[in-house]
Amino acid sequence: MSKKNISLVLLASGTSTRFKEDKLLIKVNDIPIIDFSLSAFKQFVGEIILVVNQNNYQYFQDNYPYVRVIIGGETREHSSYLGITASSKDYVLIHDASRPIISKKTIREMLVLLNEHDCVIPYNIMNDSVFDISKVRYLDRNNLYNIQTPQCFKRQLILDAFLNVTPIELNNYTDDLGVYLTKFNCDSVFFYKNEDLNTKLTYQSDLITIQNHLQKRVYKYGTSYDIHAFCEGRDLILGGIKTDYPYGLSGHSDADPISHCIANALLGACGKRDIGVYYPDSDPKTIGIKSSKILKNIYNSIVAKSYSIVNIDCMVILQEPKISKWIPEMICFYANLLKIRKDQISIKATTNENIGLIGNNEGIGCMCIVCIERDEYHVN
Question: Which residues of the chain have pLDDT under 50?
Fold first, then answer.
């Protein structure tokens, strides 16, 4: 199943009185909890729809440009419905953002099953005795499942199920499977036994459990430097942005030194060789290739090894042009390309004080340092 056909509806619209702040913005290792769910899913899906409440809509809209942010409804299921209708893909995964330690192994295996089934639902078994106080009797826990998320559906089927229920009736349901079963038989559901921890952040004690797992991380760093000379007859591409400067930069690719610098730093952080080994200037197939495409390919390769970007710091060295007006657009471009928050990348500029090749306005240089992390819990 191609990721291009899959949507993630990430539900973050609930409010909690048990926490003094938005529980999904509580930070672990200086990273908002919601980022861990995003990090787990983003390599598997073609689009992410983040369903939030009115109070935090602007925050997510400003800081997460790589996702589509929408405002949710009055209940969880109303929010699910809005997310499903906003989806444009054939398959939809609906996940509670308050389950931030969902494993990549679980996601991967459920997607394989979704190829063969209309609906795939994760569960774990009940370990405690269960007593029904209304009927004064114990229930057979062997027949009881703890239902979790992500709940995975063929989009048209779950949409049909939601349309089969009135808005008032929707208030009776606490998850998407319940709505699905109003229209479709349980035989069409595959129940996936999830043996990985998938704790939901509900109480303060859950936060301790989640923090203990999310702190299992390994950090690595990479640095790089790149320089290109000015030339005529080319557009000046900087930070993925086409500028209006009259001179471009020479190179085998589009010669964007910022993208090259970030790509090389990522390779260095992973212990790999330089960009020229993987994209040699002797290869005629890559003449004029976008440097941002090279960067995206390298980013995808580190994500496949369960690394994610912590932050990127770039210093562009040039006499001309003045690039401050383009920096916000560059930051937004990289946030979209690399699926990070805008505050995870810094792009700064300095002159060379009229000294040397750059000081004589013969070219542009860039230095970069990146920090990446490996999530030891999500590595499987």
Answer: 379-380
